[in-house]
Specification:
One of its GO terms (cellular component) is nucleus. This protein is mostly helical. It has 8 helices and no strands. The chain starts with 17 loop residues before the first helix and ends with a helix.
Length: 129
């Protein structure tokens, strides 16, 4: 369901791997009985028109059912815990000109990427609380 890399791609305004996330949330939030029925109906490939026409925008994410929001929230927290530093530490380093300039160009670029990733994750945390 998640794809080869085992991750979802999230952007500022929407989920970029929306089909994978939508299916994953749907399945993980099902009861055992609902899952059996879903599996028996070969619903893996059959998406309703509603699902095909909706994007997982931030607005839609904020309106998910409570179990799905909880699952996303916990997943986001786990992802944030995998980083060696928090958002504030990255922000402080970006704003400390002297410390920032001591970093190699590659380290600076990595810092910008990590900071952007963490900002998106924090934004999503707020949406699914």
């Amino acid at each position: 369901m998640v794809g080869e890399e085992g991750a979802f791609v999230l952007g500022w305004d929407e989920v970029l791997t929306e089909e994978e996330l939508s299916t994953t949330l749907k399945v993980l939030c099902m009861s055992e009985e609902e899952f059996r029925e879903y599996k028996e109906q070969d619903s893996w490939e059959d998406n309703s028109e509603e699902e095909e026409n909706s994007t997982l925008s931030n607005e839609v994410l904020s309106r998910l059912k409570t179990p799905c929001k909880k699952l996303l929230y916990d997943s986001i927290l786990l992802t944030l815990e995998s980083y060696a530093s928090d958002l504030k530490a990255e922000h402080d380093l970006l704003n400390n000109k002297e410390a920032y300039e001591k970093l190699s160009r590659r380290e600076q670029q990595a810092l910008h990427v990590r900071y952007g990733q963490k900002r998106i994750l924090h934004q999503l945390l707020e949406l699914v609380q």
